[in-house]
Amino acid sequence: MYLGAANGCIYQSRDGGKTWARLARVGNRDDLVVDNILIDPVDPKHLVVGAFVVADGGGIYISNDGGTTWTAQPEMLGQSVRSVTFAPSDPKILVAGTLEGVFRSSDGGGHWERISPKESVELHEVESLAIDPENPNVIYAGTWHLPWKTTDGGKNWTNIKQGIIDDSDVFSIVVDPKQPNVVYLSACSGIYKSEDRGAKFTGGVGVNKTQGIPSTARRTRVLMQDPNNLNTVYAGTTEGLYRTDDGGKIWTQTTGSDLIVNDVYVDPANSQHVLLATDYAGVLASDDGGVSFQSSNTGFSVRQIRAFTADAQHAATVYVGVVNDKQSGGVFVSHTGGLSWKHLDDGLDGHDVFSLGQAPDGTILAGTEHGIFRLKDALWQRVGDDTKAAAAPVAAVKTTPVASSRRKAVRTKAARPQPAKVQRAVAGPPLKNFDGSVFGFALTGDTLFAATSEGVLRSATSGVTWNLVAAIPAGDWHFVAAAKDYVVAASLNAVEMSADGGKTWQAMALPPKVTQVAALSVDGQGEVWIGDRDGVYLSTTKGTSWQTLTNLYVRNVDSLYFDEHANRMLVTTNEPATAAFAVEIPSMRVDSWDTKWNLRFVRPVGDYLLGATLFDGVVVQPRMVDSALAAKP
To answer: Which of 380, 390, 373, 497 is nearest to 444 (CA)?
Structure first.
């Protein structure tokens, strides 16, 4: 079996969907939605994929070695392919639907020609296709407007809309393989059925409303017939899975309404075995005909990990936070140093987790797109408006510049002049009902800092209450880091630094060439590190001068992290290369590892490193092998 993901990857299963392994990345890009996969019934090593990019573009991709390698079909390059199918009576005949129209191949996908009128103002945005099981010239095409049909291979097209509500997006079309006069069609206005080859449809949300599917779930992404019981049809909707056993008269919901179903597979050898491809929950499997489902994601993950923190009190306990996974996401905890994971999302309500941290009292904190959450007794609780423990204002302390020291391994760049400026770190009033986005946490002594969309926050109560740092301008602050008494915070185009644990703050000048900060850190000597699209910059003079390392050549820096125990700076990039770097302090020697993975960041766990990939979960040293997080939703 093959599974297409929204990041250009194809996964393969050799045990009926129980376990998966990543097979290949189609098109060598991570924004390609692999939405259609065809397996040649004559030659199973011949695969054809239709894919699209959400913004625009895509194409037809062909493999002749079972999916190991892929070639873009040149005539369809750049086409946003939304549907592909082959003729049951002649598998060499394929049709593809794109944003521009309908295309056909007569040689298994080797060559393509447009068969819909190029000048048509209606027959485009083709989301679904079906071919008559007996006559390959009879083609049904569902668009973002209404369905169409041709009986002569595309020479002439007829709009088949009788009984269908106007302007209905047609997501899926099914022609009964034994009775071609029976056609099922799903649209944004409901599920329809025709018993006269599409001349007239009944159903939808009008007078003949489909029984059993509420109007809120009428966006049916896919229809799938049971090949062994043709009156049994599954409907995958944006609000769960439905099933009918009487040809569409009555539908019964078999999953929760919080599930978005993108595809349905019914095993032709065993109709009780049903698989679902979903948003957020990955693959779900049923062995009782869709009555109940269990996760079946071993070896498969498209998780985007954005956050990490290690438990300072338990060496093998680490936490990661993910985004874009709704109820299946949130936070995962490992008590085995990253080798196995447990879902920890109760109370997060499906929020994205942008940052994680640990308070002085050991409490784990999660920064989301809607405020800060604290973990207590395995339950996340949103930080409330209890102001009794709010921190008092901190008196001003005058600071003096730190003397700089130069090293042979560092090349000095031109400085951007910036007068020293010391500000009072007077805390603002305690925040109530804070609802901003939280991008980072940092801890120095007993004081927590948070970089948020509304400014830099400070807490002296282990995250129970928070105050704005009034000395730092309000706005969108994306980064905060601390080492010993040094604290730095950065927006995309400004940096503030404190050398006394956040009591006073001083604005820093950015490196002359930096137009947008992409990563930030500070080491135990008070040296500030900044990463951007062109490399890594280092300042020992609070921004009055910046240098680049002569032996560290990187671009598109994604993460900088000071590993205090090993006294080194860890560096990763979002380049196609799979290397991670460590800069030893103070020698500035650069070490690197070819991790074999595209890593978002690396973090120390005991005496080894843990890495977060862009889409494949967590990997760990010594060989950056798969962690179980990549296998569980």
So the answer is: 497
